[in-house]
Amino acid sequence: MATQTLDESEQIGPATVVEPGKLDFAADEVVFELQSLSCFYGSFRAVRDISLRVPQNKVTAIIGPSGCGKSTLLRSFNRMNDLIDSAHIEGTILYHGVDLYAEGVDAVEVRRRIGMVFQKPNPFPKSIYDNVAFGPRVAGYKGSMSELVERSLKRAAIWDEVKDKLREPGTALSGGQQQRLCIARAIAVEPDVILMDEPCSALDPIATLKIEELMRELKENYTIVIVTHNMQQAARASDYTAFLTMGEDRAGYLVEMAPTQDLFTRPANRLTEDYITGRFG
């Protein structure tokens, strides 16, 4: 089969999402649509029957107790789970209307368009400049690399702190600076979406607030999906929140998804209320 392209001009069709998780977004505002998604590691089902929609140019947070499949769900958005031999999915993930797991879709191109920032800052053992330039070089970028590096570092709100030491190792930066460098590295390949898997869990409160401020700025140009165990962070930084929990089979499932303010002040489900008020989890 010929390679299926991910045409950025394509728009998602009429909503087919079932409850829970259906939100009334306009068709051209939807970046991801998950339809009855289940994720497996071998025979173990880590996530089951999740249907939800992720809006464009918003921050969507995924919260829930440890072990409920938040990171597994996030990694399914850019096919990172493909790197695990035993991993597979059932159901559908549409990205701008294109089935990400259809035969012929290039997983490398998926990961270029849908970048990832991990829990622990992981700069390459290279200079600050080369950290940011690495992805564009691999992709064959033909423009001015210095301008791209500067633009990416500015968008990640770290340019002023590193502009005079671009040839110094990225690993010499503080933890918060390293995480912003990793965000700049993700931005440099000009993605459409940035996934963040607990990006502040290893950072101090001041660095955490800087990352949260950065997310609010970045959503003008990117769609952001963040997994966080910190409910206060979800309440502060996100526009929409999805709450997952575990069933008796240990598979994570979606309890509800709503605008963040509504979910934290008027949750529709008792399980959500119990979790955000600390009764369990």
Structure characterization notes:
This protein is of the alpha/beta class. It has a domain at 27-123 and 192-276: Rossmann fold (3-Layer(aba) Sandwich), CATH 3.40.50.300. It has helices at 70-76, 107-113, 128-138, 145-155, 159-162, 175-188, 205-218, 231-237, 260-265, 270-276, and strands spanning 30-41, 44-55, 59-63, 87-95, 98-99, 114-117, 193-197, 223-227, 240-246, 252-259. It has a six-stranded mixed sheet with strand order 6-7-8-3-9-10, sandwiched between helices. The protein has a four-stranded antiparallel sheet with strand order 2-1-4-5, covered by helices on one side. The longest helix is centred in the middle third of the chain and has 14 residues, at 175-188. The termini are far apart. The model is unreliable at 1-21 (pLDDT under 50).
Quaternary form: single chain
Strand content: 15-25%
* Spans of at least 5 consecutive residues with low confidence: 1-21
Structural class: alpha/beta
Number of helices: 10
Rg, rounded, reads 19 Å
User: In CATH terms, what is the architecture of the domain at 27-123 and 192-276?
Assistant: 3-Layer(aba) Sandwich
Q: What composes the largest sheet?
A: 6 strands, mixed
Number of strands: 10
Classified in CATH, the superfamily of the domain at 27-123 and 192-276 is: P-loop containing nucleotide triphosphate hydrolases
The CATH topology annotation of the domain at 27-123 and 192-276 reads as Rossmann fold
What is the strand arrangement across the widest sheet? 6-7-8-3-9-10
User: In which range does the helix fraction lie?
Assistant: 25-40%
Q: In one word, what is the shape?
A: globular
Nearest-integer average pLDDT? 90
Instruction: Please identify the top-level CATH class of the domain at 27-123 and 192-276.
Output: Alpha Beta
Order of helices and strands: EEEHEEHEHHHHEHEHEEHH
Kindly, what is the distance between the CA atoms of the first and last residues, rounded to a whole number of angstroms? 46 Å
